[in-house]
Design a protein that fits this description.
The longest helix has 19 residues. Helices cover about 35% and strands about 20% of the residues. The mean pLDDT is about 95. The protein is globular.
Length: about 160
């Protein structure tokens, strides 16, 4: 989200929650520490594996929304009116943990609401009901959430 990336600084952590899909439980997808912010054209050169493309499954993959000339990629279907704002603040991170395999995602879906409810001492049926938008975490909460994500990855193997 453009508005979130703008306010992050190197050393901050960011966590991602899955989108809202009918009859599918949201979950914490992963998190990382921000190391630097660059523009999308620089990201295009540094991270070719993240360029927009059609995957073998026919779905759009990647998150770099520019082409080699810095223009809006044809696979980026967002409004051209927001393009110039969206190409700023591409996040480069480290210390990442992401739930990617089917087993990891399943465990994440099963455990995320319970984990978030415990962390924030607030019940809810959806992640947004518990954490809201743009929630700040303290260092202990960041470490706890990263350890939990890494624990899921270990348990799913």
């Amino acid at each position: 989200m453009t508005n979130l990336r703008e306010f992050l600084d190197p050393g901050d952590h960011i966590f991602v929650v899955s989108g809202k899909t009918p009859s599918v439980q949201q979950y914490v997808i992963g998190g990382m520490r921000v190391v630097e912010k660059i523009d999308a054209l620089a990201a295009y050169g540094r991270f070719p594996q993240n360029r927009l493309r059609i995957g073998d499954d026919g779905l759009v993959k990647g998150n770099i929304i520019v082409d080699a000339d810095g223009n809006q990629h044809p696979l980026d279907h967002h409004s051209p009116d927001t393009f110039n704002k969206r190409i700023r603040n591409y996040l480069v991170g480290d210390q990442a943990a992401a739930l990617v395999t089917p087993a990891e995602v399943e465990l994440g879906r099963e455990q995320s609401l319970r984990k978030l409810s415990e962390m924030f001492e607030r019940p809810g049926n959806r992640a947004i009901d518990i954490i809201g938008r743009q929630r700040r975490l303290d260092e202990t909460q960041v470490k706890d959430l990263m350890d939990w994500l890494r624990g899921i990855k270990a348990a799913a193997t």
